[in-house]
Amino acid sequence: MSIIDADGIGEIGNPVCGDMMTFYIKVKANIIEDVKFKTFGCGAAIAVSSMVSEMGKGKTLDEAMKIENKDVAMELDGLPKNKMHCSNLGADALHLAIEDYRKKHKK
Fold it and tell me: What pLDDT does 76 receive?
């Protein structure tokens, strides 16, 4: 699901496995008010995207930038070793959405 008038959009993919994540954020008063995502990939990639959206919602932009991929994997109680690459995309996609927002709203 996307946000049509998103304040920031971040997209990342892994060409080796074919996973692709796009994150959309709405920001109000420096707080991530809403996060939506579109993910193409395996179940682990979808779980990672869902967890990242929950972890980012309600946080300030700076707090959300501190979410690391290892934090996402821990929140999911780990991922199978062959699926860890999925968790390496989630936080990065959120960070790209925040960077996009900041670029658009530079003063």
Answer: 84
